[in-house]
Amino acid sequence: MRTPQTRSRASVGFNMTPMIDVVFLLIIFFLVSSHLAQQETQLELDLPDAASGERPIDDDIRRVVVNVLPDDGPAPRIQVGSRLVPPEDLDRLIGFESQQTDGKIEVRIRADRHVPYRVVEPIMIACARAGVWKVTFAVVAGG
Amino acid sequence: MRRPAYHRESQTLGATMTPMIDVIFQLLIFFVCTASFQAAEEVLPTNLSLPGSIDSAVPIDPDLKDLDEIVVKILREEGGVRWEINGRRCTRLAEVRAVLAGVAQVKIDLPVILDVDGGVPLENVIDVYDVCRQLGLERIQFAASLSS
Predict the structure, then answer these.
(1) Cβ-defined contact of A117 to B116 (cutoff 8 Å)
(2) How many C-beta atoms surround the C-beta of residue B89 within 10 A?
């Protein structure tokens, strides 16, 4: 008895479904992990609201992010990168960064909304002393 | 022998539902994971100027001589903040907006100088800054002295 032609054709045929499943899963995994990795680079702070904020531009300019953490004690903490910086060291730090790039840096101040202005002011003064005029405040849309 | 009809029907229904549920489940996970529950972060650009760096003489219209700059003082007081615009006292942010809107109609390129008390929360400073930017007053400066 002769086997039907259709069966042999079916066994040779390549089943794409599991491969598509796996590829789809990999795509989702990389999309999600890259998204989460981007989110986790920023320190979580309760930023002030502003209605006239602009979307940050991804340019090549070097950016120094100064985080100001709220604190119940006498001095809120200033964090640059992952380390805490005493306020008196800010001049030196921003001055050094500015020298490296000939003043073409952006200083982004990410300060908690409840931080008193006296903590933020020395950061701006340090920027002005170092010749950095591009200072931005991180805000959240709203207001 | 003939199979009962209901059995065959239920089998085909189960076979078609499974991949659909798979896909829907994957899409659900994807959107749950990628949805950002935090509000998007934006930036407010500033242009720092300190006393001594804005000495360039700007010709002023004689009619607007008393309006060569707007000094907004933000002062801390019991239970909140209050504002003073060129000496005029405001108790609500809406008043500040109204006064600045009037000024912006007269001369849009007036520099606004924010003189902020050290104890004022940054939130209140950003509020006034935001109001100025919304009204089109783009020349906003922070009062500071290099000796501090």
Answers:
(1) yes
(2) 11
Chain A interface disruption, residue of B26, B49, B81, B126, most A CBs within 10 A:
B126
CATH class of the domain whose range is B62-142: alpha beta
Q: Say how many C-beta atoms besides its own lie within 10 A of residue B49's C-beta.
A: 18
- What interface predicted TM-score (ipTM) does this complex get? 0.70
Q: How many CB pairs under 8 A join A and B?
A: 143
Work out the burial of residue A35: count CB atoms within 10 Å of its CB; fewer than 13 is exposed, 13-18 middle, 19 or more buried. middle
Q: Mind listing the pLDDT tens digit for each residue in A62-96?
A: 888 888 888 766 666 888 877 888 878 888 888 88
A positions 38-97 inside 8 Å of B (CB): 39, 42, 44, 47-56, 68
Does this model's pTM top 0.90? My answer is no
Specify the 3-state DSSP secondary structure of B88. Answer: strand
The full set of domain ranges for chain B reads: 62-142
Q: Using the beta-carbon criterion (under 8 Å), do A117 and B118 form an inter-chain contact?
A: yes
- The domain of A14 spans 5-40
Contact A117 B120 (CB under 8 A): yes
Total domains in chain A come to 2
